[in-house]
Design goal:
The chain is α/β, with parallel strands linked by helices and 333 residues long. The chain is built from 13 helices and 14 strands. The strands form three sheets. The chain has a six-stranded mixed beta sheet, sandwiched between helices. It has a four-stranded antiparallel beta sheet with strand order 2-1-4-5, covered by helices on one side. The two termini are 24 Å apart.
Length: 333
């Protein structure tokens, strides 16, 4: 390689965020049931990673392994720079976990729950009270701090659960289906909390069955099916894996409409609406090809819209038996 190319390559590498979590070939079985069948992960620090999959796909098992709650049967992983098998104590010191079921003790107050976590993290009493008060205020729980947690709404309990997780200032947080059972407003509040955590540099590993949630929050998404990663990439990359994407062109001039219909291939006409629809993966290259053909014909559309499948379509295609094109392998790289 010419020496002139080396500085650029080094710069590119330096600009890449360090990995918060890496895994290679993670395997786990319970009896004859293989839950994880050799999964690989690379999650940059300061990002949101969403793991999707149907019930029983192995999402919670992956969280349990990476958070040291259970041991893998095979494979390797590093979490926050620490080897999962060789140094689990350092991994535990760097992470926080909020499971599907709240860890909140309903018999004591919100403040007492927070102080209990401070004690578990061996914070000095004064420091523990300061951290507890700050987090209760941050999560809009200060007014309810002296009330029994059993009186809290579902959204309040979830916020308290995450606040308790943050007592130890973890650099990585595992959120295992954190909004299950929450009403839409509470779910939106939880999304905002996740965004704020990531803006502060925290890495979030999210499992969810709400496809909209992954679409809203995640920098990268992986779909787990039958113990394997079926595909992963950005939400937009995954949406391009399934058929159904198209470009819709609308015209106000009937002459321009007819000229465009003649210039374009594989087009579906909607004569009454003066609209044309043609298959597209939504990529820049695909759109440029459409626009180039229109330019060559001297035609300009009044409106161009791109329609791509959503994550629901991706989820069903990858887990429900629908054939997915070979591009899935490309998005996984």
């Amino acid at each position: 390689m010419p020496s002139s190319a080396m500085p650029a390559s080094r710069t590119d590498l330096d600009q890449q965020p360090p990995a918060a979590i890496t895994a290679a070939g993670l395997r786990k079985s319970y009896g004859d049931k293989t839950v994880l069948d050799g999964i690989d992960l690379h999650i940059p620090a300061g990002s949101v990673f969403a793991l999707l999959g149907p019930n029983g796909a192995g999402k919670t098992t992956a969280v349990k392994i990476l958070s040291t709650l259970v041991s893998a049967d095979g494979g390797t992983a590093r979490v926050a720079g620490h080897d999962l098998a060789a140094d689990p104590q350092s991994v535990r010191a760097a992470i926080g976990v909020t499971g599907q079921f709240s860890a909140v003790d309903g018999l004591i107050t919100g403040e007492e729950n927070m102080l209990l976590m401070a004690d578990l993290h061996h914070l000095p009493r004064r420091e523990g009270r300061r951290v507890a008060a700050e987090l209760l205020e941050r999560f809009d729980l200060a007014d309810a701090a002296t009330k029994p947690a059993s009186t809290y709404s579902g959204g309040m309990k979830r916020r308290l659960d995450i606040a308790m997780t943050l007592v130890g200032t973890p650099s990585i947080i595992f959120l295992d289906e954190p909004t299950t059972g929450l009403d839409p407003r509470s779910r939106q509040n939880m999304w905002q909390i996740v965004r704020e955590l990531v803006a502060g540099g925290t890495t979030v590993f999210l499992t969810t069955q709400y496809l909209e949630e992954a679409d809203e929050l995640a920098d990268r998404v992986a779909v787990l099916n039958d113990g394997r990663i079926a595909a992963h990439g950005t939400a937009e990359e995954l949406k391009r894996l399934v058929p159904g994407g198209h470009v819709r062109l609308r015209f106000t001039d009937p002459t321009a409409y007819r000229s465009a219909a003649s210039a374009l291939r594989d087009v579906t006409r909607h004569d009454e609406a003066l609209a044309l629809q043609l298959p597209s993966d939504g990529s820049q290259r695909d759109l440029r090809a459409v626009l180039d053909r229109l330019d060559a014909a001297g035609v300009e559309a009044d409106e161009l819209t791109v329609h791509t499948p959503d994550l629901d379509d991706v989820f069903f295609a990858l887990t429900g038996g629908t054939t997915v094109p070979h591009q899935a392998e490309e998005a996984s790289r």
